TrEMBL record:
It comes from the Archaea. SUPFAM superfamilies: P-loop containing nucleoside triphosphate hydrolases (SSF52540). This is ATPase. InterPro entries: ATPase_dom (IPR011579), P-loop_NTPase (IPR027417). Residues 13-274 form the ATPase domain. GO terms for molecular function: ATP binding.
Length: 375
């Protein structure tokens, strides 16, 4: 089946230019950021680039460690970082290591790794780091000092095995919430990363405003540190070509008029193009598939999961903007100007809304507009 909704793909459609650029930059050691809204295919581009680079890599999503609206499980993040770095480079030691089972806790992964690392790597700094992280992590103690040591781990192992490694952190902006554990987290990361010669760093994020603040504000440690690649939605013709090829591959006849309707409705977002393609193939009618899309369980789950990260004020402003067709000015979004501006600020930071021109704001993802406009 051509259309796939949900998991990232290692062969994203029409992203060859982005992939080849990213591979070249990673191999050359240039820090890179991939920036774009949700469901645009950033993770697929990143995954495909990592696979095709033929370099050992770590891919970790900071979003996986969020707790509630602004909490962050730093102990698990640090444990995941250390264990993934070791697992990615461990094969070069000449020793095989396989986790016995799928585990829910990265602290447990570290404990399982400890014995093997002592034998295969024989690097006191590595086994010592694991032991301290385990001890402090299991007791709920502060790990800020160990974080600084963990950031040195990729360079240490890459130098030992004379190889380059890629560290990729998806949804990087959510490390902002780890400041409760490490107040100067980005300063610490920059201070270690900038001197490493064998590690390539890639970050990506969908909360465009938050990521822009991290990379473009002069008072931020990562100011002008990354080469930025903007990932945009497909243009109309690419969207239609994707749909044509998909329906043709799957042996489903869909008219050019209906293909145009789908492309116009979802506006170049690969995730939604895939979902509509699946629905059309299952239900057989384009009109039915499109009209039912805002009520589809997959759409509800995806968008409600995103909305839960927003404050009540931001959700209210977003809903009102959707009722206006996805575009509007602050005066149309509520009587309390201060409250509206506060909501818009969060929506821009989280990548839901962009400012088109002076005083005009637009919802970036058309499916959010379709979804909220009928509720």
């Amino acid at each position: 089946m051509w259309f796939t909704y949900g998991p990232p793909t290692e062969n994203p459609f029409d992203r060859d230019e982005e992939i080849s650029t990213l591979i070249k930059l990673m191999r050359g050691g240039q820090p890179v950021s991939l920036v774009g809204p949700r469901r645009i295919g950033k993770t697929s581009i990143l995954l495909a680039s990592l696979k095709k680079s033929n370099l050992p890599y770590v891919l970790i999503s900071a979003e996986d460690f969020l707790k509630g609206e602004k909490g962050f499980n730093f102990t698990e993040f640090l444990s995941a970082y250390v264990s993934k770095v070791i697992l990615s480079l461990h094969p070069f030691s000449g020793y095989a290591f396989k986790l016995e089972e799928k585990v829910k806790s990265y602290l447990k992964v570290l404990r399982d790794l400890l014995g093997a690392v002592k034998i295969s790597l024989n690097i006191p700094e590595v086994s010592g780091l694991i032991e301290v992280v385990l001890d402090k992590g299991e007791k709920g103690k502060d790990l800020s000092e160990e974080f600084s040591r963990a950031l040195e781990l990729p360079e240490l192992l890459a130098e030992k095995f004379n190889i380059r490694i890629v560290i990729a952190i998806d949804e990087f902006q959510y490390l902002n919430f780890a400041k409760q554990a490490v107040p100067e987290i980005f300063h610490v990361m920059r201070s270690k990363w900038q001197f490493q010669k064998r590690v390539s760093y890639v970050i990506s994020g969908s909360a465009v405003g938050m990521l822009k603040e991290i990379m473009s504000s002069k008072n931020q440690p990562f100011y002008q540190y990354f080469y930025s690649i903007r990932v945009n939605p497909f243009n109309r013709e690419t969207s239609k070509e994707f749909l044509r090829k998909g329906f043709e591959t799957d042996g489903v006849k869909v008219s050019e008029e209906d293909i145009e309707k789908i492309a116009e409705y979802v506006d170049g977002f690969p995730a939604w193009l895939n979902l509509v393609g699946i629905k059309v193939e299952l239900e057989g009618e384009v009109e039915k598939a499109l009209s039912s899309l805002p009520f589809d369980d997959n759409v509800i789950s995806a968008i409600e999961g995103d909305l839960n990260k927003l404050s009540p004020t931001a959700r209210s402003v977003l809903r009102k903007l959707a009722k206006l067709g996805g575009t509007g000015s602050p005066k149309d979004l509520g009587e309390n100007e201060w409250s509206v501006q506060r909501g818009l600020k969060q929506l821009i930071r989280y990548g839901y809304v962009e400012r088109e021109e002076r005083g005009i704001y637009k919802i970036i993802d058309p499916m959010v507009t379709h979804y909220l406009s009928v509720r």
